[in-house]
Each structure stands twice: as structure tokens, then as C-alpha cells.
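User: Okay, second chain of the day. Same drill as before: sequence in, C-alpha cells out.
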Amino acid sequence: MTTYETVLKGCTPEPLMNYLKALGILRLVAEQRDPNAQGCWREGTFVLRSVLDEQALVGFFSDDYRPSPVFAPWNGDSGFLTDVGTSFETINRIRELPNTRGDILKTTVNQIDQVDILKRFKEVREKEKYLRKDKEKLKNQKKTFPEDKAEDLREAAKVVKEIKNTILGNVRNSFPDEVVQWIDACLSLTADGFLSAPLLGVGGLDGRLEFSTNFLSNVLDFFDLASRERCSWIENALYASDGMRLIPTSIGQFAPGRIGGPNGTQGFEGSSSVNPLDFILMIEGAMLFTGSVSRKLCSGSASKSLFPFTVYSAAVGCSMGGLKDSKEARGEVWLPLWSRFARIEEISQILKEGRAELGGKQASSSVDVARSIASLGVDRGIQSFVRFGFLKRNGKAFLATPLGSFNVHARSETGLLLEIDPWLNRFRRASADENAPPRFGSALRRIESAIFDYCQYGGARRFSEILCSLGQAERELSAGEKFRNEKGIRPIGNLSPEWLHAVSDNSPEFEMALALSGIYDPEFKVGSLRSNLEPVGVERRGGAFVNWAEKDRAVVWKSTNLITNMVAVLERRILDGKRKGCERLPLAFRSSASLEAISRFLSGDTDDGRIEELLWGLTLVKQPSIGPSSRHLPAQAVDPLPRSFALLKLLLLPGPIRSPAGPVSVRMEPRVFPLLRAGRLDEACAIASRRLRASGLVPMTAEREGFRKTMSERTWGDADPLRLAAALLIPVSEGDVTALGRLVLRPTAISKTTAV
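Assistant: Same drill. C-alpha cells below.
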């Protein structure tokens, strides 16, 4: 049998109405004409493959289409709970419908009429409605609502809820599957009752717009049209053809550009004008977004995640208005786009499963979905997703706002994020507290945005942003003792060494931050460098126990610049080492920086802010005993390195220096720091020169000639003295110690000069 590929120009990923319309067309053709019909997305347009060509497809919808039974007797404006109004008239028109294409509609209405509890529901609902009006009237008159009536209102509301759940249960258990499908698309059955799907408002109701009666009204109008005008509607809906007359009708949240309102058309105010068949096909497509009851009843699932690819909103990866938008949003839905032809059974299965899982659990937020996609949580041939957030716009109305698209790519490093999930979940709950200081909410949003961006675009730089954002959150917690104690938030534990490879971007900033973060005391009398940044427990032999320190705090890192903080850390570690009787300076390291990177740091060619952010993040990672090796450069390659740095660095090594005469221990001279802070570099270097000579290492100088006279004009370089003092904290490898020695010591003293 011949098949045709029909490009449906009226079916695009945006707005939401057009996407759902594509699913509706595929579903109806497959169920009512061609069981082998298939569809896919190609260059932003839906393509249908079936036995129907363009004209035959128009003929099918014009003459053979049978509408689905879309009814919501639990809603007040459904036409079943009142005896007047447009909805009531619509239901009556269906009761009298002669067209055999609407037989299932007539049958369903008759079945609903037989539900006895509807009469009781109508009575109690009218009572509740009257009491609420009375309460509002008294409130406007600034009068107190009587307690007996308040109790009646509470009781009526309780009964209304109970009867509503009973109606839903009865209809769901006894009505045909075609009717139940709409219920499952609108509502989800849980142990606590029914929950609404954001895709279809609140139980098929969006403000004053009742979806089922609007659908039925449009269906009746469609049937009443003359054949020629009906075909005009169909061609416009399917192929975006011109020439059809739009009709003023409600479209709800599904097409924000067509809802009318101020500046909606010529003049000051426009009405909602659409092709009614668009709404019909959209509702037919929305009925695919149902889930299995067994999955819905799973414990531990978030309410939004009970529906296919529906999650809580997060202000990440889009131009959403921010925190307020995400808090007030009904949620968001991720709609799959697939590039290969698929049958309706395949698409329906994907949507029913809603397969976006994270760590064996259903994804509950947009960040979780992004992680799930990046870690192959979605593996059904889906090419990308288009996001829609149900955000409050146009007063109090919710609109399906496009939030961009997300391409499906595998990011192997996302598995590392499982390490932070327990801490992140606790931090997320604590930050969501309305009394939480705003800075913690900002820190959380930065973490989530970094995770989302990495999952979408990849790259070591974006993964390092995740680590930096974690460091920022840790920094905020270190200064928020009351908050962290009340919420029971511990420091982030030692992350695995695999994080180092995921975040490494081979930049000098990363190189120096990694070297600094690995500084520790091999005698374990002084804490690691992390203890100088935040009040955490002291590192112990055989591992690190990370917890908030209650006493013996060694924090010196302040809200100032990187240079000042590095100098403060160096002085504090030297002081603590002396006070606690350390045999060596507590400046051992697991990674070292190259002299080339240090030279760039001294010349101010590095980003200090980036170094600081990376440092806070890298202190959270457990480095291996032997970190990444540095690049050992020959002496001539580091000629721009100031000789003053080489001279002073030899005083600040974590162990003795090997020389031809044996190991040489050089005692540190604390006097150099006040001199460097005061900008007196000459005097600091003179002290260092004398200390080296006293230790048996002879600098390239003669005392009678004066140190400056025997060196070139670049003796001290152009380094800022305070920046140079900070650079003394940066670890260097044993090989680079030899290179430093060649710059300032006599050859006889440096043939084997290394740090033990």
C-alpha cells in the first residue's frame, strides 16, 4: 500500500498548542484510519507518514473524524452541575445530537446522568458557594463572619472534596477506557486523593475556562459547518493555509500569542480569536499525557513528577523572570522531539513512562531532568526536548511560556553529581524556607544553573562552574553558623579525585588553585588549608573527618582580596606550626604549580577572582597523595621570574634542601612579611640572603660589594611586594626548587639543590 509523507506546517514545537495538535493528528489517524501511521519532527515541523495524502487527510477530518469523549463532571462548569449557562446548553446539544459521529459523546452523557451522587454534589456545592459569597460580603462590610457559618463552610468544603473524589473514582472504575483517558490526563490518583496535571490546568480547568465544555462546544460548531468551510478550518490547522475566518473563542494557556488582551490586535483591546479545530486537535493530543496507576502510586514521588516529563520549575537555562516566577509557576513540562518515524504506540509508551530518572528515582525538577538526559536517563531515540513553563502572566492567568530547547547529549561526568545529592537535597530544603537568608537561595540557584548549563553544553569549564558554585555555597554556610546549625547542614564531604579530571581546564588559575588547595601538615598538628578558609574539623592521619569546628578555629580568610588572604594564610600556618611544635613548616602539598604559572601570577596576568573561586571549590575535593605533576621548565624558560621570589621561596620550603654538602634546613625569617607588606623589598631580600648564607647556601653576591651591585638591573623584577608575599604560599615541585636555586645561588651550592 502506498504511503505518503505529509509535512504539517501547522504543527510546530511552539506554541504548546501546535505541539499537542501534532500528537492529536497522529493519534486520531492511527486509531481511526491507518494503524501503521507514523510521525516524526523534521526541521521544526511535524511530518506524518500514512496512507493518506494531503487531500485525503483533509477528507478524513471533514467526514470521518470521531471526537473523543472529553467530560469533567467533577468541575462546576462542566454542564452537569447547573441548569443554566453555556456549558449546560452544550451538554443538552450533545443529548440531542443526531450525527452518528458523536454517538460516543451521547452515550457518555447518558452514563454520567446516571451517577446518583451528582445530585448530592450539586446541592452541597451550591451551599458552599452561597456561604463563600456571604463571607466575602461580610468581609467587604468589615463584619465578622459568624463562627457557626464558618463551621458550615468548612464542613461543606470537606464534603465537596469527598464527593468529588467519589465521582472521580466511580467514573474511573466503571466508565469506558475512552472516558478514563481524559481523567488520567487531567488528574493523577495518589494515596491522598487526586492531583492535577499542570498541562491541563487544575483538573481540566484554567480560571474560568473549562477545557472539556470548550472542546465539546468547538466540536459541535465544527460539525455544524458546511463542508467547504469545514475543509478551510482543517487546511489552516494542518497546513497553516490562509483564507479561513478565525472565530472568537477561548484558547487558555496553550497559545499565549492568541489570547488577545491589550495590544492583541488593532485598537486598544483584542479578543481571543483562533481556529476552533486547533483547540479540538490540541485536546485530542493532550490525552496522550497519561501515566500508569502503578507508577503514580509509587511512594516518594513528587506530585509534579507523577505526570509525563512534568516537574517543578527552576529558574535555570532560560530567561525566566527569576525566583518569583519559579515559585509561583504550576510547573513545567519537557516535550520530546524525535527525528525518526515512530508509531503512536511508541510515543504513547514513552509518555506513559515519562522516563526521566535520576539515581533510580523519578526526576522532580528541571535540573533533575537535565541531569537525567545527560546521563542517558532518556534513551528512546529522542533528539531533543522543548520546555514549557506554566508561569503566571497577564494578571493571575497562567500561560504555557516557552523556555527553550534542550538537546540530548551524554555527559559521563554527571555521575559525579550523585556524590553531592544528599547534601544538595538538604541544602535545597533549607534554602526554600521562607525565613532563610536570601544569600542561600542565590547560592542554590547558582548551583542549579551551573548543573543545568553543563548538562546542556558540556565542557570542563562549565563543570568547574559547578564546583565553584559549591564552593560559594560552602563559603556562605561557613559564615552562617546559626542557619547551618538550625538546618543541620554539614560541610560538603570530600569529593572523589575524579572531580579533578572533570574540572581541569589546564589554565594557570586552575593550576595554582589546585596547588594551594592541597596544602597540609604531614604531622597533622595543623589543619589543611581548608581549615584556614572555613571552620571545619582538623585533618586526621589516615583520612579527613569533615565537620564544623567548634573550637581551635584557624580561619583567617576574610571578605577581602585574594592577595591579602593568601598572605594571612601563610603567616597563620607558620605561626601555628611554631606554636604546635612542628618540625617542618606545615606547607606540604599534594600538587604543585609550575614556575611559568607563578610568573604570570606575579606579573598580574591571572584572574585572581577565578583563582579564589576555584580554590574554594577544590578544597572540597580529596586529592590523591601525589597530585598532577607540574611542568618542569629549564632555567632560561623562567627568566622573567623575579629573582626576589626565588630567593625568598627558598626560606619557605616544607622540608630541608638537598645540597652537595647534605640536607640543609633553612629557618624561616618572619620579619620578611612586615617588610613586604610595607613595600620594603630590598630589606626583605637582604634578610633572606643572610639567612641562606648562615645555612650554608651561598647566594650570588659578595657582602663587601653589596647585593644589588652584583646582580643585573632586573635583580628584584617588577613584582608587587605584597603579591610576591602571596606567591610564597604557592607550592613548587622539587625540580622547580632546583631551577629557583640556579637563579640566586652559586653553582657550587646548587648542583643537587632540591627540597626533601
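Residues 262-271, 292-301, 627-639, 702-716 have pLDDT under 50 and may be disordered.

User: Thanks, on to the next one.
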